[in-house]
Specification:
With about 230 residues, this protein is an alpha+beta fold. Helices cover about 45% and strands about 15% of the residues. It has a single domain, classed as Muramoyl-pentapeptide Carboxypeptidase, domain 2 (2-Layer Sandwich). Strand 2 and strand 3 form a beta hairpin. Helix 2 crosses helix 3 and helix 3 packs across helix 6. The protein starts with about 30 loop residues before the first helix and ends with a helix.
Length: about 230
């Protein structure tokens, strides 16, 4: 029987030896102290992969959204969505590079890895940085649709109960991420939001036609469950 753990320089457990291009550090980090690096001399904060970060308050997040709405009105929704979508696309490019070296031995990209594993690795740093806990629902994949549930959205938690979705930045983020991964244009809509009185925020990712249909039903007052039933 062949010992596949030692093939191509692989270590037992699926990790690739650093001599064969594997990652030299450890993979798991579960507390902020392991993820953030503070440079007190320059007054800077860096993430584990070297990207510079900033800590902001809920008041800042609220003020940013309210300020944009005051300046551009309803166009602020589209502006935040587009910002999120560009952020998602750029973040996935950076993330793919990280995954190629950390788990792919410098040779394998995210498309050669397990999809759910990739997505959980992508979102975990966002949980650490305060964007909330997520749950990826693939039960609608046969319809070419996916659902994401966010608990403790950084945007929704900072806003008042407005009776309407407010997490447009998140919706754009998911559209950008899944467009990059699936190599085709994807859009996203928030079906329910903490700001509407719901416990969690729910997002639907799919093609433009399905997302536009979902938006129509949401504006008609349909719940997330009812909307998914209309998209058969």
């Amino acid at each position: 029987m062949t010992d596949t753990a030692n093939m191509a320089g692989d270590k037992p457990g699926g990790f690739i030896d650093s001599a064969a291009g594997g990652y030299k550090g450890y993979h798991n980090y579960y507390v902020p102290e392991e993820y953030f690096r503070h440079d007190e001399h320059h007054g800077a904060i860096y993430l584990r992969d070297g990207q510079r970060a900033a800590k902001v308050t809920e008041a800042f997040v609220n003020g940013l959204h309210m300020g944009i709405e005051e300046e551009v009105g309803n166009a602020g929704t589209l502006l935040m969505y587009k910002c999120g979508k560009e952020w998602g696309a750029q973040d996935m490019k950076r993330f793919n590079t990280r995954m190629r070296h950390e788990f792919g031995g410098g040779k394998h990209d995210i498309w050669n890895m397990n999809f759910r594993f990739v997505m959980e690795c992508w979102w975990w740093p966002l949980t650490i940085t305060g964007f909330g806990a997520w749950s990826l629902d693939l039960s609608f994949k046969s319809k070419d649709l996916m659902m994401v549930e966010i608990r403790n959205s950084a945007v929704a938690q900072s806003m008042k109960m407005l009776g309407k979705p407010v997490c447009h930045l998140y919706a754009g983020l998911f559209a950008g991420v899944f467009s990059f991964y699936e190599k085709k244009e994807r859009e996203c809509i928030e079906l329910q939001c903490y700001s509407m009185g719901n416990d969690v925020c729910k997002f639907l990712i799919g093609d433009e036609k399905r997302v536009n249909a979902a938006e129509f039903w949401r504006q008609e007052g349909a719940s997330a469950v009812e909307i998914m039933g209309q998209l058969d």
